[in-house]
Amino acid sequence: QVQLVESGGGLVQAGGSLRLSCAASGIIFRLNAMGWYRQAPGKQRELVAAISSEGSTNYADSVKGRFTISRDNAKNTVYLQMNSLKPEDTAVYYCAAGSYLPSKGYWGQGTQVTVSS
What we know:
Number of strands: 11
Number of helices: 0
Distance between the termini: 40 Å
Order of helices and strands: EEEEEEEEEEE
Strand content: over 45%
């Protein structure tokens, strides 16, 4: 049974930082691309950042220079370090895993991030 469990969300003031974690089980983690997505109220889910099985990364333009995705294959965990947070970063953040595209694979339950102005 595949499980992706996100943690680390919460309420933070604008300019602050949070680190999200996603612990995976039931998959061969090192072979999967991992991604963080977010969905704000009334908006479509969007890609925030992704990291391939080889460690290549890509980011949404809106978070470049502020967010960093990383993975620890020994811990089966992917992280999203979020710095200089803005109110527009407020959303439910989801972790996803896939053999090629994370969005075509498995999803976590999401964790709420709220940035106050």
